[in-house]
Amino acid sequence: MDIRKINRGLSVSPQIAPADVAELKMAGFRSIICNRPDGEGNDQPTFAEIEEAARTAGLEAHYMPIIPGRVADEDAGRFDAAISDLPGPVLAYCRTGTRSTTLWALAEGARGTPLPTILAATKAAGYDMSGVVRRIANGGKTPTDVADFSHDIVIIGGGSAGVSVAASLLARVSDLDIAIIDPQDVHYYQPGWTMVGGGIFEPEVTARTMGSLIPRGVSWIKAAVSAFEPANNAVILDGCRVVRYNRLIVAPGLKLDWDAIEGLPETLGRNGVTSNYRYDLAPYTWKLVKGMKSGKAIFTQPPMPIKCAGAPQKALYLSGDHWFKSGDLANIEIEFCNAGGVLFGVKDYVPALQEYIARYNAQLSFMHNLVRIDGPARKAWFSVTDAGGNKEIVEKSFDMIHVVPPQTAPDFIRVSPLADAAGWVDVDQTTLRHKTFENIWSLGDVMNAPNAKTAAAARKQAPVVANNVLADIGRVKGIAHYDGYGSCPLTVERGKIVLAEFGYGGKLLPSFPGFLVDGTRPSRISWLLKERILPPIYWKAMLKGKEWMARPEVVG
Asked: Which ranges of the sequence are coiled-coil (predicted)?
């Protein structure tokens, strides 16, 4: 843990884990405040998990989530009151500790504490609150006429899309002034988590330090974005610091909304409740699968859009394959509860998938949306919609349930001027340029083009955005077009994959000739591609600006 003392009664820290709570107790803390909304990160424990650990240790736990970009003076007042009401000393945490420190600084400013005193305390703790002080001095509004950072091209997000587009930019023009904004210390190869949940990969092979992947020559601003002021070409960070840009690329990924399912945060990672959509839970999936010899296994899929639409059923197939080969399948009932009405959105791949549904004797329950779960009771409730649009709540029992949470754009995107009515970044689906702000582009899971949200899609989008940003600067000629390409390697059994590759409108876009790989049929070659070839391509090519089989179509 990285505990930083603000004063005698308050310390702050980045995200803590349930296992840290006992150590906090030993360090003398009596209360914990969580300022981070659930679902901000793929390796983030829920507050319910922290709260249970705190209860066990005899500590108070208080949930006060603050959406990035919406730290209000009233929030600071509530934070101040909580510190006063809770037994001290108190530890407050968020993603990096910055939000918690900002709340304290604003509360102290409202109390009339001299600004140099606030700056000295936060600087000693390792947090730069100069932007907050400017906000206090400016009557509560962060001025954007003075920048803490200024770069020609600013990229928000250090995931697969953000790092790839930075590398693609530098591969074209090496002397660019680029910065990536991302608070995370670890970068994840998320497509590998399905394989972790199937017992094929160890989780550690899917993670690398962020610092090792940021392209050389790119500045890394290790902070979270709070808000956008596109009219002023400015991004405001946690702590009210300001980043100015000439061109902005937005690629922060999406948010996993665990809290949207009642009771889910309290039971994740125990009571047979798991998900391959979180780094620390994928190993639990494999533990459950290995240990299950009989009973009921439910696999869920929420309403679209979601990250990798095939992932919910990949978990089913790999689990079913293990039980099939272990001889336990006859004693295990499998059910796939899908909030949608079809097994897969591109019909050409459905026949092969149906064969495996039959092989594992899985029941398909369409229009079943998980809304509530009781882990200790091993029960789940689904909202079921019939052909006439009527809804009813249906209760199901389980011994194991693999849950995929609903997914939205991150909160700081949804409340921003960049978002469409549904909260996603509003872009032209061909050029990936923002429809309103001409010096902004977006790629990856956060934008609203009607393509599959997969790493393979980001691999094709990154060169398009890189080309089009440079065309706007005047460093290259021609506009690149994105055709909606996405790929979903459906792991139907250990050793075979249905390689779904398609673009806008479900048009098939195979990367290989049919005599080599027929993507509509299960293939051993496709499995080798997923297991052996794609991870090195990801780490050594896609994130390095080597656009193997990803060169964009350039017009004009």
From this structure: none
Boundary of a domain, candidates 117, 137, 157? 137
- 7: its two tokens: 């004063």
- Residue at which a domain ends, from 372, 389, 406: 406
Joined tokens for residue 248: 């902005």
| Burial class of residue 539 (count of CB atoms within 10 Å of its CB; 0-12, 13-18, 19+) | middle
Q: What digits encode the pLDDT tens for the residues 163-206?
A: 999 999 999 999 999 999 999 999 999 999 999 999 999 999 99
- Identified catalytic residue from 34, 240, 308, 337: 308
Rounded to two decimals, the pTM is: 0.85
Q: Which phi and psi angles does 544 have, rounded to 5°?
A: -110, 5
Rg (CA), the chain: 24
Strand order in the sheet with 295-301: 273-274, 400-402, 295-301, 332-338, 362-366
Residue 92, domain CATH: 3.90.190.10
Examine the domain organization and report whether 392 and 305 are in the same domain.
yes
Do 203 and 279 lie in a common domain? no
Would you say residue 143 lies in a domain?
A: no
Q: Check if 488 is active-site.
A: yes
Three-class DSSP category at 479: strand
Distance CA(508)–CA(111), nearest Å, equals 62
**Could you tell me if residue 89 is inside a domain?**
yes
In a domain, residue 93? The reply is yes
**Same structural domain for residues 335 and 429?**
no
- Helix runs in 126-228, H state only: 130-137, 160-172, 193-197
pLDDT in tens, 329-364: 999 999 999 999 999 999 999 999 999 999 999 999
Answer whether 285's CB lies under 8 Å from 276's CB: yes
Local structure of 65: helix, strand or coil: coil
Between CA 497 and CA 529 the distance in angstroms is 9
Is there a single domain that holds both residue 325 and residue 215? no
* CA terminus-to-terminus distance, the chain: 54
Facing residues of 236 across strands? 227, 242
Cβ neighbours, 10 Å, residue 16: 21
Domain encompassing residue 64 = 4-137
Q: Which of 34, 94, 240, 488 is catalytic?
A: 488
381 and 455 share one domain: no
38 falls within a domain: yes
Q: Is 94 a catalytic residue?
A: no
Q: Which of 127, 135, 147, 146 is nearest to 110 (CA)?
A: 135
The tally of domains found in the chain comes to: 3
Among the listed residues 494, 437, 485, the one whose alpha carbon sits nearest the alpha carbon of residue 232: 437
